[in-house]
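Lab meeting prep.
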Amino acid sequence: MQEDGNGKDRPVLCEPVTFSQLESKYSHPKLELCCVARILKKLQTILWGKHFELQVDAKALIEMINTPCLPNAPMTRWVAFIKLFSFDLVHKPGKTFTIPGGLSKRPKGVNEDESERDDFDEEEERIKPHPGFGLKEVNTSKVGKLSRNKTNNIGIPIKQEGFGTHMQEYLNSLKKPQSIGEEYLKRIKRRSVNFYIEGGKLKRRNQETPQMVVFNDKAQKHIVKKMQKELGHKGENETYRRIKKRYWWEGMKKIVNKWVKSCQECQERSHLQQKEEGKISATLNSFSRVSMDAVHIKAGRWKYLVVARDDFSGWPETVTLTRLTAKSVSEWFNSEWICRYGAPKEVTVEGGAEFGKELQEAVKRAGSRIRITTPYYPEVQGMVERVHKQLKDSLVKMCGENGSKWKEYLPILTLEDRILVNKNNRILTI
């Protein structure tokens, strides 16, 4: 059908389709569905790759195509074939659906063939056997020997141990195994609903597929090795998913985790860098070890902030500088720290130029040891560096839009830092 210039439907092509004697006995909804599939198959060379409007007068047919929940295989195949085309399904009432309805009720023509033919099945001509497929002579003399080898598809025989032995013995005889007590028998009975015997093998019920039960240490290690090493080292989660799909034993997740973590190939190619555990080097006396660091602040005249902090108590001393040099840092540390609190046993600094020769000589003259950290292990300066962000955030909040006045708020923020309780040792700084 096609619309003309006035919006009326005009027949363009008519393709009659007759039913066989068997098809004529179908129920009316099934016959309607068969009719749609038959006519689409006949016109597939014209309709394929084109979007069209499919008009029907049966609402049941629309439901069957849009929400298929079908009781038999032929109707399922018909719907699958219909879904291959691109169309809009439109319902037309029977009173207005006169042209197709009239054509379907016309009498048979003189030259129409009424011979019997096979039932319609859209898969008959589409699925053609490959020339390489076929049946060949198979030697079955060794099949019996292979079936008696109870390797359970993992390459080694499985002999159940512990719980697996008792559960298999109970399910085979439904009697109490001789080697267990009454309490253990109750546990076996309670859990037996999840297990069953198939082909002499103990299996566990599962929503997807039954799992083969493996209570044998050697077999468990063999399975994990096969799934992890020989299938591409896919990691803990993927290895566990593969094993869980086929096998089951208690503590399977823990065993897979331990095996994957001990895999040498995975450790060598892991993106997680293995680091040596940090060693505690805390002191028990205040002002015995001091850490210093410089902070760059791009606001106003004062562009640099130097922070010195006691490792034990967390006591801070701060200074603002216009030029960051080793001489200016040395003069400040000598007057504001050494002359106030005495010379510390050790001073830890980074390897920057601001902590260069002048500062190192001043520290050594005071009788202290100077320690210079490396960029490969920045955690050494963690005591002083981890509060930089908190200090800078507080300065920004107090300065507001006028960031050049950050030097005016530094003394009160330093005092606030001094009176806080140290989280590391739970003591008040002053």
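Slide two material, second protein:
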Amino acid sequence: MAYQPYRITTLGNSLQESLDELIQFQQINSQFALKFLLKFNKAINSALGFLKNYSFILYRVKRKTMRELSSP
């Protein structure tokens, strides 16, 4: 599954521990926990997906022509 890397975050680990505890005390079943984790994975991927875009800001840039670059 493509979304699983987000489960190793602090938030993902805490969610997994909480769901495991709820399953242990029979407050929810494992099917519900799995559905909840899948929704978490999709939501966190959507929320953090924009972080794949990069911007480079350059300061004090000098432009050179190819001729200037090739001359010693």
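Talking points for slide two:
The longest helix spans residues 30-48.
The mean pLDDT is 82.
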